[in-house]
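Input:
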Amino acid sequence: MDSLQFFGFVIFATLAIASALVVVFHRSPVISALALAFNLVAIAGFYMMLNAQFVALLQVIVYAGAIMVLILFVIMLLAISNEAGLHKSGRIQTVLAPLLGIACAAALGWGLWGVGDANPLPVSSADFGTVNSVGTELFSTFFYAFEVISLLLVVAMIGSVLLAKRRL
Amino acid sequence: MELEPLLINFGKIFVVANILMVGVAFMTWVERRVSAIIQFRLGPNRVGPAGLLQPIADGIKFVTKEETLPAGSHKPLFLLAPVIAFVTSLCAFAVVPFGPVIEVAGRTINLVILDLDGGMLFALAATGLGVYGIVCAGWASRSKYALMGGLRASAQMISYELALGLAAVGVFLASGSLRPTEIVATQAGWFWHWNIFGGFQLVGFVIFLVAGYAETNRLPFDLPEAETELVAGYHTEYSSMKFSLFMMAEYIAMFTMGGLVVTLYLGGFMPGFPTGELAGWPLWALQIGAFTAKLGFFMFLFVWIRWTLPRFRYDQLMDLGWKRLFPLALANVAVTAVLVAFDVI
Amino acid sequence: MAPQSLLVLSAILFSIGAFGVLWNRGAITMLMCVELMLNAGNLAFITFARQFDQAEGQVYAFFVMTLAAAEAAVGLAIVIALFRLRESTDLDELNLLKW
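Output:
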């Protein structure tokens, strides 16, 4: 059991990091978008391994299945072919960006050192991650937040339609 | 990791996958014969008894055809697109319960491959990922017709996914669970306990069926692959085995949609009358047979409607999905919620 | 599978996303790197939810996902509007206010 989980973790982690690097470095935005969709599905695999079924399935339906398709549509309809036609990066950016990236990783690593438990995860209760438990929490403790976020979605919908219209 | 549950799971997957593939081959024959009968002609009846070996001949044809690869295409994605479409549509069938919990040689086997708590969400997720196969096919072909067909097909699929999911929400309210086996269990007994009758989900059933037709790109929603409109839409540049993978993906998606409709609305593997004292293998055979019969009817319905109705124009299609089915599905959820709150369901 | 390793993975993904935002020129790729960062945060939320056996972390992850959807929609609408103006997604072209 333990070795199978470790094996699964290593595979999913490699896939997630590799696809993230493709997102950052690839010339073509379409390949970046597809790599990001792959990354999201890999992360959903992690959620499944952690027994958080509902969030894993939501991740695939909402994130990988809707948001990424939206991004792909915009890329294809605007016919953005590749990033090579854009301005060349200045020298400051070429030097500073990797340094800041490494600094960010180092800072996060130093902050997380010793915070997380190095022991294996405890066995979760039977209803961890089920639709029932998350739904109960969502509609009782976080009820107002839920209503506010629905309102936010309506506002975002109206805003994006207005912004993208050719003629108001 | 115990070996035995793993082997049982592999066995289930093996059996289901094989039956689905044979079913796909059988469906091509059914499609051609039924369409022929509807059009007052005979259809393929030469190869084998009543033409039943025709799918094998078709398969040999597909395998031996020349594999073309357009010059400017993006080769990895071009080859990967049919695989994505095929794999996702096959995965979606994993949550459909095709039988009860049976006992074979002292081991209890639940006749569903994946008994998730959010099982129906898994089916929606898998069909949602099928959009990528079409988008990749359209874009990687580097051809005008393919790109437009791909974008149209994926826009159609994501539009009707909303109506599909919302119609299913009505069933989740009526049955009180997202787990397919529990949804089937609440529809036991006489056939008026089925969700379509006793659960007051007739409107939801119609919405789900229509959205299911649009999801699988079947007529009357098959504009993305209509020959007269866009040459062949997103699979214009595909030939032989890659094309046949797309066709198989479409037929498997049909099976999945049929399976979901049967599970959500028509009682799954429940035979529709109380089976009383019946237990053991007679009961299980009856239930598996009931599921197969209902699924078979919906497969026939898919073919029947294809060869009866004309095709929707693209703007009519989008209008139907967004302006009519989606508000209707929302109203269905509201009405079902009221009925559940007042203990009618 | 210990929480420590999952958190380290989350930190790595976040750093890759942050580096991507700093490194890339096009607007849409930058948006995608922001999505990477949000996703890494989600992974940390779910890890802690599992460690303490609570549903709260999952609800937070749910909210982050919803916010990411709203943000992606509005961001892409802005990119479309700007693309109509400048015919490219290079963010350096948006320099009308530069003195």
